[in-house]
From TrEMBL:
Residues 146-243 form the Mandelate racemase/muconate lactonizing enzyme C-terminal domain. NCBIfam families: mucon_cyclo. This is Muconate cycloisomerase. The active site is at K167, E325. Its cofactor is Mn(2+).
Amino acid sequence: MPKIDRIETTLVDLPTIRGHVLSMATMMVQSIVLVEIRFSDGSVGLGEGTAIGGMSYGAESPESIKVAIDTYIAPVLDGLDGDRINTAADIMSRAVKGNPIARCAVETALWDGLARRLGVSVAHLFGGPVRTAMPVAWTLASGNSETDILEAREMLETRRHDIFKLKIGKRPVREDIAHVAAIRDAVGDRASIRVDVNQAWSLDEARWGLRGLQEIGVDLVEQPIGARHMRQLKSLTDGYEIAVMADEALQGPEDAMACATDRAADVFAVKIAQSGGLKKGAEVAAIARAAGIGLYAGTMLEAGVGTAAALQLFSTLPSLAWGTELFGPLLMKVDLLERPIRYADFAVHLPDGPGLGVTLNPDVVAQYRRDRQPGVPGIALPG
Ligand SMILES: O=C(O)C[C@H]1C=CC(=O)O1
Ligand SMILES: [Mn+2]
């Protein structure tokens, strides 16, 4: 019986390839928490906990994830049978309210450990993959329409992405619509264009916004209004033809159930981190499927470990109508992995090998760990 011997966390700050401009923050660096669980039989499991824009996207930050794990999760899991992931998840959710990213990071490391000990992939533990390549969106968020157009053209030419998600909500609605229209016109029908407002609009702004986006041929709008405003989200879903996707509104199966019961959204962005782990992410996906709601594999802009964990789960879902946005490693200047995840032919490819199918590059971790490079994180808030 392999016991949990030690849970180690490391903050790593990876510079982004360009400023990533979101409605709530501009990211120059992505900060991640690596989790390594050491088991009594010598096996090791890897996990990752990653937030967006410090604490400006949600209630967890890289620092809070580390504290939650070191101070509140590691002690209650100490000595537990490492194979008992359901028990560990239950203990974590009783010991720590909220903090789904921290719980997901630890659960991921437990899945990786168990799958490695069995010599199988994590996807295998979820019933096996139904696909090994998944469509993958890229986020255009340089903050400048011309730069975004050049980026989009390059992605199409190199066959890396033909789905683009534009981050809007920082500028007045009219300006945002003009920005989206310029990109729509530039790429024509070679790509699917979607937008993410990250909750920035009021309901009346959203009504104008959705009407404008629909007119210019945008396929989908993500979380246009506040996460808590489920009834208003439903009114937008019912009022327009453009698909409405819930993201921040979905913090696990209970939210998914409420959103599905009212059919407040057409599509769910399922994030393993926001759901509180792979198992709960699978539950969110099952609720969507049962309710006839479309599925999209979302990201917290994780580096290779978190992205691989999401790929393992999403490869097993019978239908993934809206594809994925599991491009996080490509947003960072350096890759954390020994063998980077493969992006080709407009798809992201499931890594093979046991566990998550990935191993860390120790030199990159050594160079970018926060305790070796003081003075980060690089986040600018608007205004
Ligand atoms: O969905 C979000 O809000 C977070 C994330 C996903 C892509 C991206 O650029 O940011
Ligand atoms: Mn989103």
